[in-house]
Design brief:
three-stranded antiparallel beta sheet; eight-stranded mixed beta sheet; 8 helices; binds fructose -6-phosphate; Rossmann fold; globular
Amino acid sequence: MSSHYVLPTKVPTIVFPGSGDAARHLALMIDSLIRQNSSAGRATVLGLPTGSTPVGLYRELIRLHREAGLDFSRVVTFNLDEYYPMRPDDPHSYRFWMQETFFNHINVPPRNTHVPDGTIRAEDAEEYCQGYEEKIGRAGGIDLQVLGIGRTGHIGFNEPGSARHSRTRLVTLDPVTRRDAAGSFFGEENVPHQALTMGVGTILEARKVVLLAFGEHKAPIVRRAIEGPIGDAVPASYLQQHPDATFLLDRAAATGRAGGVSPLI
Ligand code: F6R
């Protein structure tokens, strides 16, 4: 097992030598949560992100499914967000990405997976989003919410300005977020301007939250999220108010460089 250390920050933060170590740590946490719940006859409800950050986590969970019999048949998933407008079979959609990266490789029942529907009519968005929240409620609430963090400080697509009590809704993406997504859309002009996202309030209701952040480009915003003032300038800072939130970082995200002393200490 790799060496890791815990930082005395406002949100408990564990720093791993590399992103693969953090991904394996979280995969094992999820593994034991699912096994515990399944042996007690309970479902496990996971809140899930897309993006570059969780790829190693999904790879590790697939490995545990194949090699260690991790059973997803009683797992229910809710994704954080989806671009809007967006068809689920569009290769740019988060639904497509989740299928390709994770769902197609495990035994989660398709009806148990939920990704916001980017094909709804804008005028139906409010009702649809309320329905998404109700589905989370009917599933028993989210046991473990996995998050990434955007360079704007967003969690889900809750960009700066998002309120602490915001719920699932249609939002406008920050220009920085659209720029960061430009590569996968072959140009910023092709990136949708809007998205459906769980709200900050929705995320904070999860019983446990784990945020993953890797790479030195995330270091400045991670630092503001875990040590800076709590408020809508950095929506991830609201996690300081969650009773069971943890950040898992690689060394680069903790230090701002690929080694050396952490500016977080
Ligand atoms: C994606 C999501 C976003 C990403 C964030 C980081 O479902 O909710 O908040 O987690 O933009 O993206 P990556 O991991 O690509 O740096």
